[in-house]
Every structure is written in structure tokens, then in C-alpha cells.
Amino acid sequence: MGMRFATFSAVLLCSFASLATSIPANAGPAGATVSGKVTFTGTAPKFKPLDVSKEPPCVKMHESQPLYPETVVAGPGNSLRNVVVYVSGGAPSVGPPALPPAIFDQQGCHYTTHVLAFRVGQEVKISNSDPFSHNIHPIARINREWNKIQPPGVPPFSYAYEQEEFIPVKCNIHPWMQGYFAVLKNGYFAVTDDSGHFNLPELPPGHYTLTAWHESFGTKTQEITVSSSEPQTVNFVFAAKP
How far apart are CA 143 and CA 140, in angstroms? Predict the structure, then answer.
């Protein structure tokens, strides 16, 4: 009887040990998905086609489809593209997994990503897919300002920023080429798509400040509380400038 009990106890202990190792040590409450849409009231500005006449190959590239400024890109129902939505307050100390390098390409006489968001310390790979040179110039004020010529056919180069900042980017050769780097402290961010939608990584329970940033319309903030794994919807509405 004693031997049977000892054997049963050993099996039970092994089962508990196996169960314990199958549960992550840092397992906590499930996170909640926070998503939403960014729109604006009023009338979006009407832009004229960009003047690319200083670069004849650009003229040829865009004979049938001119380039327009991307300062305000509106979608269906006054939705707003290129808005950075991020956790500006209360971000967890342990964020989502590290992100792969962000890609910033120069192609067709413009930046393929008008607003590129990435984390402090995250690698940014900058490439030139055009058959002519560009000079990329991020005009940082908190981080170090630099500019670099990038001839056609050269491999991409990489850079990483040390501090949070929204940085205008331009090409010193082609003045119509303009964009932004959004360098953020944590990985809880997203950039709105063509329909104005965004979707943040799952947030653990807590109280957070969300900020929506747009290069022309400014910023909006909202406070949210995540108390369970139920998805939350947060919408932002900007007012178009007269």
C-alpha cells in the first residue's frame, strides 16, 4: 500500500511539474485589441500636381499619372490616411516583440511611404530604387540631423534614432519629395491606411493615453481604460483647416 501511494504521488508531482512548465512564467491577463478610424470634418484641400520638370525621367514616369502632395490624403467618408496613432502615456514597460527593420524607399520620384513610424533604436533601411540619385535629408531637431547622397544601384544603408521625435524628411535634389519619420518610444503604434483605419498591438489591462498625429491637422488625444480582453474601438475626428 505504501509503495502504491508513493508511486501515485510521484506521478501526480510529475503531472503538476509538466503543467507548470507549459504555462509561461510571465503569463498575465490577456491583452485587448484597440482599433478605430480617423476622419475629418470640413473640406479637404485641393492640390495641384507636383512640378517635377527639373528631373526629365520623372516627367516621363508620370506623364499619365501625375504626382500630388500627400500632406492631406482623404479616403471614403472623409477618412484620413497617414495619421500616426500611438500610446503616448501609460505604455507597458514590456512592449510587443522587437520589430524588423523599417523600410524607406525612394521610387518613382517620391517616397513610397509618406509617413514611416518606427521605434527608438529600431533599424531603418533606406534604399533608392530610381535610376538617378537622391539626397535624403531628415531634418531632426532633437536627434542628430544628417543628409546623405544615394546614387542609383547602391545598396541600402541603415540608421537608428535615439530619441522620440517626428522628423520631416526631404530630398535636397528634388524639393517636391517630402515625408516624415515618426520615431516613437514604444511599439504600440499604427499608421492609418487608405480607409483611415488603424489597429494597435494588444494592450494589457491598464489606463492609457492615445494620441493621433497628423502633419497638417495637428494632434488629438483620448484616454482609455483596458480592463479585459474585449476589443475596443477608438475614433478620432480632426477639423480641416479653412
Answer: 5
